Amino acid sequence: MAASWTLASTWMRSDYGLDDGELKPGSPTTPYPLRGSTSGGVTTGPTARPTLGCVPGADPDSGATTAYCNCPGADSVLPTLTTGTDECGYTAIPFICQTKTDMDASSSVYCACNGYPGTLPLLSPTFTPYDPCGYTTIPDPFPFTSTDAAGDVIGCRSSMSSTECVAPSTTLYTAPPPPTSTPTAVPQYTFLMWREFDYEPDDAGGHVHYVLSGLSFWAGSEQNPCDQRGTYDAQDPETGEYLNGYSDSMLFKDGICGVGSNGILCTSSDGDKNWSCKNQGGIGNEVATCQVLGDTSHYRGCSEVGLEVVLIENLICTGDINCDA
Asked: What is the mean pLDDT of residues 42-59?
């Protein structure tokens, strides 16, 4: 995946794990506005502000005459203050740059700034009093950003091309790991919609024969339909009348086989060939789809005292409705 480098707009001051000197003089850097003077001490804010708890120290290599301040959170020691009564009464970590010499690069001199993960070049002597490291603001240490194949956002000091990073880089954002498993598929079951013919015996004239006494249409089990007769009957959603055959709009007000207790509405938009069944009375999620069986339908007989029942398969349905549980 090719990376595309873009310029970052801001730099948040934080530790990127880079040592001073990893960026050498000559890196693309634009000097920023300068403070008036750094030759004297550093001026702190109002004395009423709480201090950082800095403590004074001395450099034994200089004959214990060079005093400095050790401050919590500072990347290096800080000079003593020349104003106020507390020589280490810092209320905030100041922005301080100092000159350093790179012995590995022909003794070239550069600026090392407190809190900055790299180095900066010396400033031109265009102001007085002149301080070669008199930076007051600094450039973004990682002005170029790119997103790698894993989704991590990478910050880079400079870039030669669209895919290469020159000088130190850092990960500005780590993408979350990909899912370790695929989502579980919704179970798919098969159930049927039956048309029921009820016949009662009639022995008029001394001969027993059966007379059609009722028609109904309902949804239920494919394996044991006789056990679910009359449980999930279809109604006209407009009139509430019970249907005796399939229609382009069928309401099962009590749901089907324990699913859709607020009602399931099945509708067809292609001339009663296919249906979409949704819960919540038709405004919820689709829970099943149905197709007309036509010539492939089968008959099933159910018998009980005083009644003969013939069931005809009309629609076959699949979805998250298990009528054979």
From this structure: 63
Q: Poorest-confidence range of 32-41, 108-117, 141-150, 256-265?
A: 32-41
pLDDT value of residue 230:
82
Beta pairing, strands 286-292 & 78-79: unpaired
- Do 135 and 34 touch, CB atoms closer than 8 A? yes
Paired strand residues for 313:
194
CB of 158 closer than 8 Å to CB of 8: no
DSSP string, 226-251: GGGTTTSB-B-TTT-PBPSS--SEEE
Residue 225 near residue 208 (C-beta atoms within 8 A): no
Specify whether the CB–CB gap between 44 and 91 falls below 8 A: yes
